[in-house]
Amino acid sequence: MLLLLIALFVMGALSTLLAPSQQSSADTGTSQQVTEGKALFTVQCSSCHGLNGEGQTTAVIQGPPLAGVGAASVEFQVGTGRMPMSQQGVAQAPVHPVRFSPEEIAALAAYVATLGPGPAIPSPEEYDTSGVSEEDIARGGELFRTNCSACHNFEGAGGALPGGKYAPSLLQTSNLHIYEAMVTGPQQMPVFNDDVLRPEDKKAIIAYLNDLHSRPNQGGLNLGGLGPVSEGLWAWIIGIGGLIIFAIWIAAKGVKAK
Description:
One of its GO terms (molecular function) is quinol-cytochrome-c reductase activity. By secondary structure, the chain is mainly alpha-helical.
C-alpha cells in the first residue's frame, strides 16, 4: 500500500511538471493585461456595470451585467466610442470619439473576458477581404439584402427604428467592427453566430459592403441610397406637386380671362 501511494505521488508530481501550461479561453491576454484592465474597469466602468461587472439597474443608472458578453463586445462598444456613455437615458448609445488607447481597450476586453465565456475578438484573417472572389461578393450581397437591409437599407446607409432607435450607417465602419457587430448583436441588432451565418458568410457580407461603398458615383443624386423609397417620394413630390401647381396656374389664368 505504501509503495502504491508513493507511486501515485510520483506520477502526480511528474504530470504537473511535464504538462504544458494552459491559458483559460476567457483570458484573452496576459495576467498583467487582465490586471491592468480590471484597474481601468474599476475607475471607468464600475459606476454603471458594478465592481465585478454584475450590472446595476436603478432609477438613474442602467448598466447591464457583462458576464458572458465576451472580449469582442467590449472592443466594439469601446472601440467605436459608444462606451463609456456620455448620457444615461438615451434610446441607444451613439458613436463618439474613442476615449481609450488600443492598449487600454485590449486590457478592458481581456478583463471582461474573464467574467464569463463569450465571443472573442476576431483575428484579422476572419475579416480580411483581400482574397474574396467575385462570386463570394455576390453571395455576400444576397446575404446582406436578406438579413440586414431591412434595417440598414440596401447600401448600408442606416435607417430609423421604432422608439427613437436606429440602425447606424455602415459607410465608415471598419471590417473589424462589422464582424464584431454580427457576433455580439449590439443595441437592437440580433446575434448572427456561426450557426446562423458561417464565418465565410460574414466575410462575404463585409466584402460586399466594401465593394459597394468603393464604387464611384456615376452621376445624379443618390437620394440617400434608399432605393425605391426615396425615388418614389421625390417622384410623388415633383410629379404630383408639379401637376397641382399647373392646375392652380390654369385656374388663375381662367379667372383673369373672365
